[in-house]
Amino acid sequence: MQRTSTITSARNFTIVGIMEFTSSDFDYIIGIPIDIAKKFYEMDDQLTYIWAVPEEGVDGEDLSRRIELGVENIQTISPQELRKQSEQLLLVMN
User: Fold this and answer.
1) How wide is the angle at C-alpha 74 spanned by C-alphas 28 and 59, nearest 5°?
2) Which residues have CB under 8 Å from 86's CB, separation 6+?
3) Closest C-alpha to 31, from 44, 8, 14
4) pLDDT of residue 4
5) What's the distance, Cα to Cα, between the start and end of the chain in Å?
6) At 23, phi and psi to the nearest 5?
7) pTM for this prediction
């Protein structure tokens, strides 16, 4: 069997910070600004995922509800729901 690989695009990025370890899938992602991602992946106005981190003192559950109420055709996963889903996934994996 012949193995092949293709690189469709290459870009250089500057790392501006490293998030605190969470023991979740989010420890293995790289975040880039949405305008850069749209250009890099040639997405135009298509969007499938945004990671929003509330500022210190802002309730994540409330922010999640406000985003769903204020933005048409969007679903959010609140921090509490994300934790529940992660815990369920870990139980299945164990």
Assistant:
1) 70
2) 24, 25
3) 14
4) 52
5) 34
6) 60, 35
7) 0.47
